[in-house]
Design brief:
Layout: H1 13-25, H2 31-37, H3 45-58, E1 61-66, E2 69-74, H4 78-94, H5 98-108, H6 113-131
Helix pairs in contact: 1-2, 1-3, 2-3
């Protein structure tokens, strides 16, 4: 699964929100710290705990006891999850056609000239990096 261990199970949108909140709260966070990072409405403590238990059962989170509370740690990085999600969407929505996806994203986003220039630099760096290898050997 694109750098994500195969044993991890798919996430619901609510589970994903809790995982994002965990990453925002820090590398090891308690339920209360995670809850403070959740967007929108107030989430009940029991609801947050339920989602943390689900995430642990699915392999996305591990927990450890510290005093009278549990601390939760994600098992993968936010960047790895982001890459996984982007690759999944690229395949699903654009059939793996990266130029079409970039064209659609740039034409429909409100990115600034500076952001576009940064993106061009990233692509140029990646292109130069790829040019260092002979893919035909």
């Amino acid at each position: 699964m694109y750098g994500i261990p195969d044993q991890l199970k798919a996430l619901s949108s609510s589970e994903e929100q809790v995982l994002l909140a965990l990453w925002a709260a820090g590398p090891r966070a308690a339920r209360r710290e995670i809850g403070e990072q959740l967007p929108g409405k107030h989430w009940a403590d029991a609801t947050i705990l339920n989602f943390l238990y689900r995430l642990e059962a699915k392999g996305w989170v591990k927990s450890e006891k510290e005093g009278n509370r549990n601390l939760y740690t994600p098992t993968i990085t936010r960047r790895a999850y982001g890459v996984y999600c982007m690759k999944e969407r690229l395949e699903t929505l654009f059939g793996g056609d990266l130029p079409a996806a970039v064209r659609a994203l740039v034409s429909e986003s409100s990115c600034t000239q500076g952001q576009l220039e940064q993106a061009v630099r990233v692509l140029e760096e990646k292109y130069a990096e790829a040019g260092e290898y002979d893919f035909y050997d």
